[in-house]
Amino acid sequence: MNKNILKRTLKYIENYKVYVFGSFIAAFLSVVSSLIGPMLIGKSIDHMIGVDAVNFTLLFKTLIILALIYGLGNLFTWLLTYLTNWISYKTVNDMRHQLFDKISILPLKFYDSHPHGDTISRFINDIDTVSDGMLHGLSTLLTAMVTIIGAIGFMLYISPIMTIIVIFSAPASFLIARFIANRSQQMFRNQAKSLGKLNDYVEEIISGQKIVTAFNYEDRSFEKFKKINNTLYNSGVKSQFYGSLSGPTTRLVNNITYAIIGIIGSTLAILGKITVGEISSFLIYSNLFAKPFNEITGIFTQIQAAAASAQRIFHILDLPPERPDAIDAININHSLGKIDFNNVSFSYNPDNPLITNFNLNVKPGTRIAIVGKTGAGKTTLVNLLMRFYDVNKGSISIDGIDINTITRDSLRSNFGMVLQDTWLFSGTIQDNISYGKPDATDEEIIAAAKAADAHSFIQCLPHGYNTFISDDGGNLSQGQKQLLTIARVMLVDPPMLILDEATSNIDTRTEINIQRAFLKMVEGRTSFVIAHRLSTIREADLILVLDNGNIVESGTHSQLLESGGYYERLYNSQFAHS
Amino acid sequence: MFKLAVFLKPYKKECIIGPAFKLLEAILELLLPTIIALIINNGVANHDTNYVLKMGGLMLLMAILGFCSSMICQYYAARASQGFGTTLRNTLFKHISSFSHSEIDTFGTSSLINRITNDVNQLQLAVAMLIRLVIRAPFICIGAIIMAMILDFKLSLIFLAVTPIFAIILYFVISKSSPLYRKYQKKLDKMGLILRENLSGVRVIRAFARTKNEKQRFYAANDDLTESAINVGKISALLNPMTSFVMNVAIIAILWVAGFHVNTGRLSHGEIIAFVNYITQILLALMVVSNLVIIFTRASASADRINELLAITTSIKDNTEFLTNIVNNNTPSIQFTDVSFAYNNTGDMALENISITIHPGETIGLIGSTGSGKSTFTNLIPRFYDATKGNIFVDGINVKDYKLNELRNKIGIVPQNAVLFTGTIAENIRWGKQNATDEEIIIAAKIAQADEFISKLPDGYNTQVSRGGLNFSGGQKQRLTIARAVVSKPDILILDDSASALDFATDAALRKAINDISKNMTVIIVSQRVNTIKEVDKIIVLDNKHIVGTGTHKELMDNCKVYKEICLSQFSNEEASI
Questions:
Q1: B contacts of A259 (beta carbons < 8 Å)
Q2: Is it the case that residue A578 has pLDDT exceeding 60?
Q3: Which residues cross the membrane (chain B) (predicted)?
């Protein structure tokens, strides 16, 4: 598992092979200069033999070389840090890029069922952790490799027997570190999970702040937050502690090795096998050898945390995507508006069938109204028509073409959709209206706004069409937001229309004006209007009354009133006296 | 940044014990070479194997002791840093809870979330580093400097001369990188915003086939973020090599000057070696310091963002004292006296010169076109905003004199936007009354016409509500929010156009049920449907920020032009005059 994550992460780095190679060279040169440095210092000390016996010419020469070596060494250290920085930021950039690409091909089900705050946490906090881990991991690993090889060379030169002891100690500390790492991995996963949960809760509460204050819920939400925060604390302490244990443990192994070498070396010296000077050099190099292991284990905490976060990122990347458009999928440019539902069955989850064997044939240009109780499946029909969800059984066709064989983009661009939940993005009003047609001229935008009856209120705003909309239109009223989304559709002027409770947040006087615009717009086009306000659907060519995913009544307004069924009761309840 | 140190206060013990044990470990580690020296000087020189073993054993013991103290340090570091983060998050969350809507709008939800998670994480890391390294590095630095001074004061002056250069480098890097870190966090917010929009607006984005453009938007933000990260990396990568180069220059200078000192016999070989060793130790310690500086610079950018948040206090000041108010039958339930209100300082009023008196037990209808100020009117009663001019009284007391809790407990509010929270249905209804019994919840649900669909759910009242109530239809959500508001049997019930997604039959039943329970309840119904409010005691007609009419349906039909227009937009002439 762990290995797979590492392998997958390394795959990302592969794109930057040249830079990795460059940083390897930089690491090599900077380590080599750091190994040569002490040697040159020793040499320069050798040039100061004693009183009146200092060879200044040679000393000067050596120091010049030393300065050059130092200069180059530092240059390469800088290059190494710079390159590893570059590589890791580019890599997480790719990851984020890929994540976003992924979520844009995930089925709607992902959006409807995954907490948004958690997803955002994966994009921000988890990615951050991965980049930190890589940043430190890369430069440490690279220098460590070179240093270890260099130090082994020098040690072998002095005493092969002691080298063997040192080399054996290295895997020991490595094994211990790995043991700890495996243990702490789970804890880091828990920590990342808790953080995601916390993020999610904060998102939920902050965006519902108004309700929170209205119900004096601050203390209770704080209690709950404290609880989640406390879970995060506990998992945080555990992961930080266990994660950081690898440092002290490897130091322990090193120090024990150091002591053993001291004992063996001294015994060897007593036996006359090596000189005292050699012991001290050996100790220096064994320290040099141990240092990279210390550093590697030191960053284990970060790497562990990074691995746990990477896993959460890969989790999203591994989700099955929406079935892609077929290779031979066709584009429909301007549909005639003939729609057929053939034996369509659908449910959001298999235990709870919603629509079964639904049949409907719509002639081009028909104005269809769908009414029914909440939960009767009205919005589901829209979800299926727009292919936000795919049918389980049966088929839907447009102009006789199965919608599964049409590219999603071209299918959707044939519909203009206005939903009850308005969605605006941060940008100017102009940007929001021209969302579906970015190259629209100012005149077109104003015409669309006028058609949607939004022009007058927009003009009253301090900056008119250039007014900036913050955070999902917080500074506009629900009705004003809806007018903007209607203007957005008006501008695109699509061949078919879907209005899902589009005017339920707008007052009726305004609505009448919009209706007028709608009527003009739906002329000769197939349209679906979902509404509970019956005044908005009286003019429809065909009214469908839905119940439990089935059509229970259909006909025109007057036909349905005459037949005296559910619709008639619904219509008359408008005038019920309470 | 140091302002935040108060959050470390509860962890004083950890902040002292942690570094203390780290110091102990450092001392033990520094002693090891000395013991080796002793072994070589006494053991090897005297061929005393026993002494070698004895001292070797001592070294092993010290290694284990060092290990233990290091573990203790890590433990306390983990506790203090995580505890610090947890306390800080709690405080921030609580603080944000006190914000009114206008403060939340200024920051934006995504920035608030980032500050509470990502920024706190940065600080947490800084605290952990502080405890692990901040004592050790300066200790070694200062110790080494003192030792160097004792050895050769004149020579150590070179080192002292270098110190200001080191300070200049530090200053340069900090001053260059800290604004960049701030920029980076800001860009992170920006990316979070785009993400949030994409998660919540997926239907619209896909309907307009704008996935590609959204990708471009995200890529741009992502690349921008990466560029910032690389820029800041470029500068912080300079710190290490520059520090090290300055120290290297010092070493070369010392060696050169030492040449003269040796020549005149003022310095021995061994002393030079010792001197260079100390300098190397100082260098290593400074490297640690410079890494700390980078971590702290980044953390201080985060600290600024957090302080910025903590510095903002809500514009709605709470009164700390509970009031004992005597209500008699003549005290009006709600009274507005010449109230005007503007959302911001630009002078655009949302309500102007509103004066109205509402008596206990009255049911009031509030009608008017989109943007006429209906929601604003209701927002002023529970003091979500303070009136810009004039006063509002509830039960005869100015709303500003109430303790907020007390005021809002009197009021049950059903917002326009049906927001539900993660938890069960029962938990969501309990928002309105924490200790509500199961019976009370069922009664509330029955009033809200929600019992019918809830009891049909497999888990009934224990059905999980997913984030934002995604698993319920618009009408179901609205009924749940109504149940939430009526469960506490508030003195004042405000329904802000909250039945818009209900079909007429349900709406009529709901109105009847509310009518039955509201004998002693003041009810304000905001609606665009004349039908919903036709039967109420008094209708207030708002138009363009002003009250243009009050009275019953009949009275208004006769003397209020705006009201008549609204009615005619909904009914035919005959229907309206019923």
A1: 32, 56, 59-60, 63
A2: no
A3: 21-40, 52-73, 133-151, 157-174, 238-260, 272-296
Distance separating alpha carbons of residues A122 and A106, to the nearest angstrom: 16
Distance from CA of B508 to the nearest CA of A (A): 7
Over residues B339-344, the mean pLDDT reads 82
Collect all residues of chain A within an 8 Å Cβ-Cβ radius of residue B251: 41
pTM, 2 dp: 0.75
Q: Does A123 touch chain B (CB under 8 A)?
A: yes
- Residue at a domain's end among B277, B312, B347: B312
**Candidate CATH numbers 2.70.98.70, 1.20.1560.10, 2.30.130.10, 1.10.580.10; the one for domain A2-317:** 1.20.1560.10
The second-level CATH assignment, the architecture, of A421-493 is 3-Layer(aba) Sandwich (3.40)
Question: B244–A266: do the CB atoms touch at under 8 Å?
Answer: no
What is the per-residue pLDDT for A577?
41
Same domain, B103 and B168: no
B268: containing domain: 151-312
pLDDT in tens, A400-456: 899 989 988 888 888 888 887 778 887 889 988 988 888 889 999 999 898 888 888
Do B367 and B438 fall within a single domain? yes
> Are A386 and B207 an interchain contact pair (Cβ–Cβ within 8 Å)?
yes
- In angstroms, the Cα distances linking B495 to A577, B407, B412 are 19, 17, 8
Q: Given this model, what pLDDT does residue B225 score? A: 92
- Kindly tell me the sign of the dihedral angle through the C-alpha atoms of A466, A472, A476, A477: positive
- Are the beta carbons of B139 and B23 closer than 8 angstroms? yes
Distance (Å) of CA B348 to CA A404, A512, B57, B114, B345: 51, 27, 83, 32, 8
Contact A252 B63 (CB under 8 A): yes
Nearest neighbour of A81 by CB, restricted to B78, B240, B263: B240
Establish if A415 touches chain B: CB-CB under 8 angstroms: yes
Using one digit for the tens of pLDDT, what is the confidence trace for B43-54?
777 888 888 888
The count of domains in chain B is: 3
Contact A76, A26 (CB under 8 A): yes
Q: What is the CATH number of the domain that holds B296?
A: 1.20.1560.10
- The residue type found at A306 is A
